[in-house]
Amino acid sequence: MRFFRINKLPSGNHLIINRSDLAYLTGVELEGFLLLIAKKKAAVFAPELLAGQLKRLLRGVEVIGGENLTGLLVQYCQRKGLKSLGICGSKSSHAFFSKLNRKINLKDEEDIVANIRQVKDSQEINKIAKACDIASSAMRYAEKLLKPGKTEDEIVFKIEEYFAKNKVRPSFPIIVGSGPNSANPHHISANRKIAVNDTVLIDLGCVYKGYCSDLTRTFFLGKTNGLQQKAYSLVKRAHDLALLKAGPGVLASEVDKVARDTISQAGFGDKFIHTTGHGVGIDIHELPRLSSRDKTILKSGMVVTVEPGIYFTGRFGIRIEDTVLIKKKGKKVLTT
Ligand code: GLY
Ligand code: MN
Ligand code: MN
Asked: What pLDDT, on the 0 to 100 scale, is given for residue 94?
């Protein structure tokens, strides 16, 4: 049987429906099946097209195949005398939740698995570190390609090709934002040609054995003006101070505060229009959030990004992002 992390769940009966939670608990990266953990026993409900595959992958686990998964689940619960279930990841499927709720008492346990997933074990950390190594070398490769006349898309396709050669996939749509496009934090890269004195923002990451990396660098191609220089050194300072702050025992919100205060005190607070970072793992965006509202205490084994940025609409934007492992003492920056 594959590894199974169900012993990490608190006692009680749980239904897991979210793709990433399922991948975490079972090691199977397939979408569209349900995992029920009830009375310390696992059962899987899957459409016929997945059931055979799941039986082979999850030897020793009862796999119930059929087309009406909620019906099969209700029958199973009735047979086992289960009256209530905690449902994890429920917000992702409201229709599913209400259909089932008519037959079984459901308790919303949305973040139970997401919370457990925040602290990574050594195998997970090794995979993320490898994803970060490949992302870092992809960034060095991409930097060399930046020339006036090249389009954003050409650079994106080259990075995708680089990832493919290294047997990994992008962990999100790669961002190459040139000139004014660099001012869109989540720019959709297009056929704009890079111009002589452009700012170019590249945000890339890959998935290695199911685990993500996330890295942003901002480049100046030619001459820079005073504002560009000032903005860059400010973002760099905010990034470095936030990194310095990050470590075990520190609140996620405190790391955000350091970056935000640095940028606000320089008068650019209104241009820092996103949070300072987020957890990274099976998903590119996980808990915790490095935001003013997140009171999570950072712990050894958590992996987060630190990514302050400031954006001048219609002109240029700067972001510097690294993926960082929180350690027993201090932290390690995994991207370079
Ligand atoms: N690449 C998306 C992000 O930085 O959050
Ligand atoms: Mn990113
Ligand atoms: Mn990020």
From this structure: 67
CB 78 within 8 A of CB 36: no
Q: Which of 175, 188, 321 to mutate to test the pocket of ligand 1 (most atoms within 8 A of CB)?
A: 321
Instruction: State the burial class of residue 7 (Cβ atoms within 10 Å of its Cβ: 0-12, 13-18, 19+).
Output: exposed
Tell me the C-alpha distance between 140 and 308, whole Å.
Answer: 21
- CB neighbour list of residue 151: distance below 8 Å, 6 or more residues apart: 190, 191, 192, 193, 194
Residues 336, 332: Cα–Cα separation, whole Å: 11
In this prediction, residues 316-325 reach a mean pLDDT of 98
Distance 100 CA to ligand 3 centre (A): 35
Atom of ligand 1 nearest to the CA of 278: 5
Q: Name the nearest CA neighbour of 18 among 3, 35, 2, 1.
A: 35
Q: Please tell me the distance from the alpha carbon of residue 268 to that of residue 274, in angstroms, as a whole number.
A: 13
Residue 244 pLDDT greater than 50, yes or no? yes
pLDDT given at position 1: 46
Distance from chain centroid for Cα 229: 30
Residues 166-195 as b/e (b if ≥16 CB within 10 A, e otherwise) read eebebbbebbbbbbbbbbebebebeebebe
Radius of gyration, CA atoms only, the chain? 22
Distance (angstroms) between ligand 3 centre and the Cα of 135 equals 13
Q: Per-residue pLDDT for 98 more than 80?
A: no
Give the separation between CA 335 and CA 216, rounded to whole angstroms: 10
Q: What is the pTM of this model?
A: 0.95
Report the residue count for the chain.
336
The pLDDT tens digits for 44-72 are: 999 999 999 999 999 989 999 999 998 99
